Amino acid sequence: MTDAIPPARADDEIAAFRMAGRPGGAPLTADIAAFLEAGQTVALAAGGRGDYPVCAMGIGCRVLCPAPGTLLIRVYLAAAANAALLARVRAGGSVGATLTGVDHRSIQLKAAHGRLVPTGAEEIALLHRQVAAHRDWLEIVGFPRDFAETLTCFADDDVACIEFLPERVYVQTPGPGAGSRLE
């Protein structure tokens, strides 16, 4: 990490969350929703009864508010490489997503289950913008361009989308307060 990007602090995240207004009791603030859609590193997991979780790296995230007080999260990942995780979701397994920024700010979202939904052209365009931002951040902190491009590449025709209603949201930014539930 460069000196130009100070590390995030979990206790700052918790304080900001408690002070922010959340229209209709939504579980996220506008700041957190913007963070989730800004091109972060996306780690995904899906669990199953009596099984170990299956993990994957995601491509991006979208926050939807279909009705007041209702929030849906969509996370995107390469379909072919993550068949086992997608099978767990299809079977009704639990879903978790942790999004982490270059400053180590991390937000974790969990749900008892999710569902697979089609990915449209608008979402592919959103993912390209998020991936470009993520690639730029990787370069800012010192990774070579070739590495950043390799890490963030995806095929438009190989994108799966998991949609879920976040039941629990946690701050996972390192430091005091890490692991605290945001409520």
What form results from the Cα inertia axes? globular
Tally of structural domains: 1
**What structural class results from the helix and strand content?**
alpha+beta
Largest sheet, strands/sense/barrel: 6 strands, antiparallel
Named CATH architecture: Roll
| Widest sheet: strand ordering | 2-1-5-6-9-10
Reported by name, the CATH topology is Pnp Oxidase, Chain A
Number of strands: 10
Distance between the termini: 30 Å
CATH class wording: Mainly Beta
What does this structure look like?
- There is one protein chain.
- By secondary structure, the protein is of the alpha+beta class.
- The chain has one domain (10-176): Pnp Oxidase, Chain A (Roll).
- The chain contains 5 helices and 10 strands, in the order ααββββαβββααβββ.
- A hairpin with a 5-residue loop joins strand 5 (95-100) and strand 6 (106-111).
- It is globular, with a radius of gyration of 16 Å.
